[in-house]
Amino acid sequence: MGAVISKRIQYAKETLQKEVLPHVSINVEGYETRKAFFVGYIVHRLCNSALGRINEDDRDHYGKKRLDLAGSLLGGLFRNLFRRFIGEAQETLKKQVN
Questions:
Q1: Where are the domains of the chain?
Q2: Average pLDDT over residues 27-40
Q3: Distance from the Cα of residue 81 to its chain's centroid
Q4: Which residue in 7, 26, 63, 88 has its CB near the most CB atoms, within 10 A?
Q5: φ, ψ for residue 51 (rounded to 5)?
Q6: SS3 51
Q7: pLDDT average, residue stretch 28-53
């Protein structure tokens, strides 16, 4: 019975280390404290928002996104396709010369 409980505890610890807040590195000493502080920060922001002390932060708002315009996207696409064309043309010419 004790072995089953210790396996469950070990599984829970590994899950918390790897799956919860994966952007907080576990390769640093004291990472548990860093994760705990981050969870505290999240709860603090949530409580302040719920109490009306701060405004809600809408991360998905289009105004906060970085958008590439059509010109730069088409330019990059043309550049990649032109480089591929040049490479294929060189290969074809090398085969024809040989």
A1: 1-58, 69-98
A2: 86
A3: 28
A4: 26
A5: -85, -5
A6: coil
A7: 89
Given a contact cutoff of 8 angstroms between Cβ atoms, the answer to whether 43 and 49 are in contact is no
Cα–Cα distance measured from residue 98 to residue 89, given in angstroms and rounded to the nearest whole number: 14
d(CA 45, CA 52): 11
Residue 39 contacts by C-beta under 8 Å, 6 or more apart in sequence?
Answer: 21
Mean pLDDT score of the chain = 87
Q: Containing H/E element for 2? A: helix 2-18
Mean pLDDT over 58-73 rounds to: 79
Residue 58: its pLDDT value, please? 77
Q: Tens digits of per-residue pLDDT, 45-61?
A: 999 999 999 888 777 77
Q: Which residues contact 21 (CB under 8 A, 6 or more apart)?
A: 35, 38, 39
From CA 4, how far away is CA 63, in angstroms rounded? 51
Place of tokens 């409980």: 5
